[in-house]
Amino acid sequence: MAVEWIETARAKVNLALHVGGLRDDGYHPVATVMQRLALHDELVIRVEPRSSGDLTIRISADRPGVPTGPENLVWRAVELLKAQLEAAGYGRASVSIHIRKRIPVAAGLGGGSADAAAVLAGFNRRLGLGISLEALLEKAAALGSDVPACLIDGATLCTGRGEKVRPIASPMLWWVLAHPGGRLSTADVYKTFDALREAGTWESESDLEEAIAPLVSALACQGVAQVARCLYNDLQEAASRLHNGIAPLLAEMRAQGAINALVSGSGPTVAAMMPDARTARRAAEALQGKGFWVWWGFSHAS
Length: 302
Prior knowledge:
- The chain is α+β, with helices and mostly antiparallel strands.
- It folds into 2 domains: 3-168, Ribosomal Protein S5, domain 2 (2-Layer Sandwich); 174-298, Alpha-Beta Plaits, CATH 3.30.70.
- The protein contains 10 helices and 11 strands.
- The chain has helices spanning 73-80, 82-87, 111-126, 133-143, 186-197, 205-220, 224-229, 236-242, 246-255, 277-288; strands at 3-19, 30-48, 56-61, 94-100, 155-159, 164-168, 174-179, 232-233, 260-263, 270-274, 293-298.
- The strands form 2 sheets. Strands 1, 2, 3, 4, 5, 6 and 8 form a 7-stranded mixed β-sheet that branches.
- A hairpin with a 6-residue loop joins strand 9 (260-263) and strand 10.
- Helix 3 runs antiparallel to helix 4 (133-143).
- The chain is globular, with a radius of gyration of 19 Å.
């Protein structure tokens, strides 16, 4: 009998992102705090066991621009579970996943990572695969640096290249997100970041963790104003140089009442922390009137 269900994949926003120099393995060390948002994709999943044939995967989406082949992290997440699916009697199954896409693609909000994490967690839970959280986190890290954090609700402190995750305390925060149009390649943003910092001094991994400690403390104290003062993104200048719509949008967010605003991840989405729901709604309505993609709502407290 086929198993069908809907999985929620929540977007993330980076409250702070401190980045070190390029490592020998091709990754940058980071210290970042990610917070999961109410904004989410929905994955409509159907797994139909079969008595013969190989495991088949079919991905579809309700929005253009979403990859539907092996380049999609959702596809790769299913493939990572092949051994466990085989052991549970689903090794020859037909897997169909339809993505109801609400998180913009290549926007710095972790939509692809969230979708992949939802597959790992959802298959494990609904199909009884028996994978521990530690093993799920290892599989998530193999898919991408942001994927492990997407397995954890609330706020997460991420270090290493992003794959070392630890849940941390945080209050519920009100956000307005706005997208200035177009896409930014994460690789291009990091290359620009490297070029801008060539003449500077690179921070060590311990320096990065020290730099983000004030934000972690502010979140634990539930102080919204203190949290807002700690918002920071090392990639913001690089992203702004590659996309001339970011700087004006940051200024517009502040003019609309944001306590603070920053680029989320590698951009180009701008995230503005708002003092309350009323201000967030008004700001979102004003930005929508100017033609931006806009979302407003809350982050999940932890």
